[in-house]
């Protein structure tokens, strides 16, 4: 397949605050709000260390992506660098893997929106909210990329405010040893109920798969390079603020939660956020959190429409998808690629009623694994780039290269290995391996036809 040149170029309408909030939104998912209860139950306070470790490696990953993007700002996304340093084959595999990552996450999040809406309107059929939300987001993304950035900024703001409130409230309760419904808030709760590693090494290691899930999507800022106003200034600013976000949103929130409630008293049936807010007598805490997780799910779907359409555009420009998909509207939006991704999700909405919830859990696990595979590929690309360009980008060099790259690669490959041997994720890991192998085969057959 040959790519056709587009008469237009992607619109550079994303401002500094858009990039900042997109980066923040990519670092905060529904996993933190809803999944953290079961994660705490599995590993106890040691999950704080898990978030810190994974956060450090995600920061190094983003620095590597940032240096790649700033080495040539004429490139549209990190997929262009995969093509340049690993060839067409791996651009094809990485691009379509990444597309599937976001599509499968959006499947689960769209389904979740139907469940969240039922909290207030139990009589509404579960397929209606996903349909309405998907069509609204599609229309917003069709207008221009600036509107996408504006929506994502507000969605991210809601999540940020909720977390800041949690941290402030939790720390305040712990400092003044306020009594809650089940205990007394104190920082000593982090170590006085079986120690910092109450479930041992196995529980600590098991927490990594849940923590990695919380970080998926963090690399999405790497798709905004072609539509960012002044990328040389805005991309480094967004990436360098990542440690602050990790410290506040993940480490800070987990410290606050487990200081207010001992880890072994946090239930898995309700979000820890609800338990903290309810513990200080906030009326309607469950309803407030339901609104927050609803916006988080809508945000994830909004990000999906952006990332999948730009991924397909990049694949098309690289000759790894139909040239029809790289056509841009007058507003600089890849409308055909956006239509394709939306239509695919529309099919999922229609079939949602017939598919058991367990299938979506499996798809989400597969998606998480594939995200890590994409991260490994991007780190390899960065190593190849620095070998070809030893000086790197003077203003934004990867810290600790090459040791930082190799340690990051070992860490993420270790995560994949652990997911393979873990009984709870083995099936998802096997499906991911088969999917990558299938894409390699499809590429080979496609090239033979060409």
From TrEMBL:
Membrane topology: Multi-pass membrane protein
Gene Ontology biological process terms in this record: amino acid transport; transmembrane transport
Keywords recorded for this protein, A-Z: Amino-acid transport, Cell membrane, Membrane, Transmembrane, Transmembrane helix, Transport
Pfam families cross-referenced by the UniProt entry: AA_permease
Superkingdom classification of source: Bacteria
GO CC annotations on file: plasma membrane
Localisation per UniProt entry: Cell membrane
TM spans (from-to): 21-40, 46-65, 99-121, 127-148, 160-180, 200-221, 242-261, 273-300, 336-355, 361-383, 403-421, 427-446
Domain Amino acid permease/ SLC12A per the UniProt entry, residue ranges: 18-445
Claim: Transport is one of the keywords in the record: yes
The protein's name: Amino acid permease
Gene for this chain: aapA
């Amino acid at each position: 397949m040959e790519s056709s040149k587009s008469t237009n170029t992607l619109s550079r309408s994303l401002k500094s605050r858009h990039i900042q909030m997109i980066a923040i939104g990519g670092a905060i998912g529904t996993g933190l709000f809803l999944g953290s209860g079961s994660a705490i139950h599995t590993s106890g306070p040691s999950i704080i260390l898990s978030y810190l470790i994974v956060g450090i490696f995600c920061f190094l990953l983003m620095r590597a992506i940032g240096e790649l993007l700033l080495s040539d700002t004429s490139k549209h996304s990190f997929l262009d660098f995969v093509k340049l340093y690993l060839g067409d084959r791996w651009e094809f595999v990485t691009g379509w893997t990444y597309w599937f990552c976001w599509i499968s996450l959006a499947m689960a999040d769209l389904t979740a929106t139907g469940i969240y809406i039922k909290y207030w309107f139990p009589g509404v059929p579960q397929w209606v909210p996903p349909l309405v939300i998907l069509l609204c987001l599609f229309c917003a993304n069709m207008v221009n990329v600036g509107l996408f950035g504006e929506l994502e900024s507000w969605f991210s703001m809601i999540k940020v405010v909720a977390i800041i409130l949690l941290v402030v409230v939790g720390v305040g309760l712990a400092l003044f040893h306020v009594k809650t419904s089940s205990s007394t808030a104190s920082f000593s709760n982090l170590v006085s109920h079986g120690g910092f590693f109450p479930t041992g090494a196995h529980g600590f290691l098991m927490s990594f798969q849940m923590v990695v899930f919380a970080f998926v999507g963090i690399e999405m800022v790497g798709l905004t390079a072609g539509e960012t106003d002044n990328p040389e200034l805005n991309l480094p600013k967004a990436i360098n603020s990542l440690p602050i976000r990790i410290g506040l949103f993940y480490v800070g929130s987990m410290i606050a939660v487990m200081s207010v409630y001992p880890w072994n008293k946090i239930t898995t049936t309700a979000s820890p956020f609800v338990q903290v807010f309810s513990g200080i007598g906030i009326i309607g805490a469950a309803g407030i959190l339901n609104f927050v997780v609803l916006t988080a799910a809508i945000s994830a779907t909004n990000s999906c429409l952006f990332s999948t359409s730009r991924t397909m555009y990049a694949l098309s420009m690289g000759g790894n998808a139909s040239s029809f998909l790289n056509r841009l509207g007058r507003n600089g939006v890849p409308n055909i690629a956006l239509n394709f991704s939306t239509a695919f999700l529309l099919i999922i909405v229609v079939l949602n009623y017939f598919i058991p919830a367990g299938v979506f859990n499996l798809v989400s696990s597969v998606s998480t694994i594939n995200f890590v595979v994409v991260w490994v590929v991007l780190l390899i690309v960065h190593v190849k780039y620095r070998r070809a360009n030893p000086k790197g980008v003077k203003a934004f060099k990867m810290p600790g290269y090459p040791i930082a790259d190799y340690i990051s690669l070992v860490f993420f490959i270790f995560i994949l290995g652990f997911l393979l041997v873990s009984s709870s994720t083995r099936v998802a890991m096997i499906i991911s391996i088969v999917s990558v192998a299938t894409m390699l085969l499809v590429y080979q057959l496609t090239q033979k036809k060409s």
